[in-house]
Amino acid sequence: MNRHSAIIVSGGVHPDLSASTAASLCADLTKLELKRFSNGERYARFTESVRGRDLFLIQSISEANEYSINDAILETIIIIDAARRASAGSITVVLPFFPYSRQDRKALPREPISAAIIVRALEMAGANRIVSIDLHSPQIQAVATIPFDHLIAEPTIIDELQKLIKTPHNTSVVSPDAGRAKESEMYANTLGIDYVIIPKKREASVPHGITHPEQVEGVAGKNCIIIDDMIDTGGTILSAAKSLKKSGAKTVTVFATHGILSNNAADKFNVSVVDRLFVLDTVPQSKNKKIMKDKLSIIPSAPLIATAIRQISANAPLFDIFGGKNYK
Ligand code: R5P
To answer: Which residues are part of the catalytic machinery?
Structure first.
């Protein structure tokens, strides 16, 4: 990292993630005053100069502490505006989880494309670059007229899986829907194990509206590993896990980059047939960890973010980190 120019700034949602990223870069966090007015409006002011500096703002867009997801977005925009007006040399906004990423197209007439408006708002506020991890729809990068660097958690997750898998002949990657088939195949090929795809159906008559086939071929006696980009309500994964166990799977272990676990999803996982859940800390996990204890393992995302910041700051290619696999 170019210590003379680059500085790290933390949004208010997940200061631990920013602090561990800064520590990986041997940098201090830039001083920023954040507050919330009594009517809910947000405020941000740099209490040290950022003039001419290459500023990296790390903000986890999530519901956490006293933030709603929309508060987190607005605070991000306000911090970018403050940085621009304070003459930062460049502003890179690092959103480990990109919000509204599932609203990436018009699926019904007269709908918004909310992910696109988030990209535009960041740009309009003054961001010069956006960085995010495991975008639900990588094509949302097309909306940006500034560089948009897409990081992937795959190498981090593969490291964990290699430590975990003791009997590869008896372990399969399971895709919880057709949309994850390509990713699941890629994980299985890298790990040298089988993969299975189980189709997801949306049904209005069941809770969460998601079902999977009652019987899944080829998983009896197997250790099944489901890898998804995000878990929100848990509907997809919990339904898939139930089918796998009913079909005789020995264990079901789940990996997700973004463990959103909204509402009472952590409680639902706790009492579910899922044996273990691994998530990165792209959104805060302390509340989920308290509920799920040893059933939840948290994989630090700071090393990945720090490596990307180091490369960007040195004008070095991200290709060196991912070998091009981040272009999906
Ligand atoms: C679907 O396309 C995604 O990959 C996730 O499976 C989905 O968004 C997770 O949401 P939930 O946990 O609410 O089923």
So the answer is: 200
